[in-house]
Write a structure and sequence with these properties.
Blueprint lengths: L7 H12 L3 H8 L4 H20 L11 H28 L2 H7 L3 H13 L7 H17 L12 H21 L5 H22 L5 H4 L2 H5 L1 H27 L4 H7 L2 H13 L6 H22 L4
Helix pairs in contact: 1-12, 1-13, 1-14, 2-4, 2-12, 3-4, 3-9, 3-12, 4-8, 4-9, 5-7, 5-8, 6-8, 6-13, 7-15, 8-13, 9-12
Length: about 300
């Protein structure tokens, strides 16, 4: 699983950056809906968007190995459903900046898993650029006037989310070796919806009052608009772009390009939530882009 094109990692980066816009909708929605319910409705809309892509391609499943189906199930459960719940809880129970800082460990998870499970080879030049990317990501998110990085109630959720999303990168790469893009992306959200239905049923939220509480009813049009924007612009479109890139990218490389999600999330915080921008964050943002580009260049020297 080492074939990589020049465009693949940058498609991963674009998809991740579009994912990074989700805070603009997920944070205000977190004030109206419980995290589990929010992600449930998100997946209802995602499945509605995905069905026209899935149905014509179901025959492909006859040619897919059981191992690939297992990776797909893992991707849908850990990446699409549980990861989204954990990230929502991290944003709504703790400091949003801390949550995005913690997500910077995600590339370490995906790289370790890619080497251990798929035998990805890493060039000597990989390590310094990977270290620079992670360091730049921390500076972009955390190093700002008056901010003190401290663990809070959202930190455990962010750590668990980083683990789920890091492993899902590897799982998604495994799926894309045998399955077409529309089918893989579509089935991922179908599995995610099945998982979320089970979760809301177990926690007692599968009732009218829990699924659409008073806070949501009071601003129904606004909540529905946010949900559609979250599922479509920050969900389905990025997922298609991301999977298109993942099909052409090593799992060990993809995690670092996914750090564009962190960069986009910070831009959202600056734009929508009036976070202050300082000069060294801009420098770190540029360093992050250069570092991930050099990660790709270093890995291109490693033979398949």
């Amino acid at each position: 699983m080492t074939d990589e094109s020049r465009s693949g990692p940058w498609l991963v980066a674009l998809g991740a950056a579009l994912w990074g816009t989700e805070s603009a909708w997920r944070i205000p929605l977190g004030a109206k809906l419980d995290a589990n319910v929010l992600v449930f409705w998100e997946h209802v809309i995602l499945v509605a968007l995905a069905l026209p892509w899935i149905v014509p391609r179901l025959a492909e499943l006859r040619r897919v190995h059981v191992r690939t189906i297992a990776w797909l199930v893992f991707s849908g459960v850990a990446g699409s459903a549980v990861g989204a719940v954990l990230f929502t809880r991290a944003l709504t129970t703790g400091n949003t900046i801390v949550a995005n800082v913690v997500l910077n460990i995600q590339p370490l998870v995906s790289t370790t898993a890619a080497v251990a499970l798929f035998g990805d080879r890493l060039s000597r030049a990989f390590w310094p650029w990977a270290a620079l990317a992670i360091a730049a990501g921390f500076v972009v998110v955390a190093l700002r006037p008056g901010f003190v990085l401290a663990l809070d109630a959202g930190t455990p959720y962010a750590l668990a989310c980083a683990l789920c999303w890091g492993m899902s990168t590897v799982a998604g790469r495994a799926v894309m070796t045998e399955m077409s893009l529309p089918l893989a992306a579509g089935l991922r959200v179908v599995i995610g919806l099945a998982c979320m239905t089970a979760i809301v049923a177990v926690d007692g939220s599968l009732t009218a009052d829990a699924l659409w509480p008073a806070a949501a009813r009071a601003d129904a049009a606004e909540v529905v608009t946010w949900l559609v924007l979250l599922a479509a612009l920050s969900g389905w479109v990025p997922l298609l772009v991301y999977f298109a890139g993942l099909a052409r990218t090593r799992a060990s490389t993809a995690g670092y390009f996914e750090m564009m999600q962190t960069l986009a999330a910070v831009v959202v915080l600056w734009t929508f939530f009036h976070e202050r921008v300082v000069w060294y964050q801009i420098v770190a943002s540029a360093a992050l882009v250069v570092a991930v580009a050099m990660v790709q260049r270093a890995q291109q020297r490693v033979g398949a």
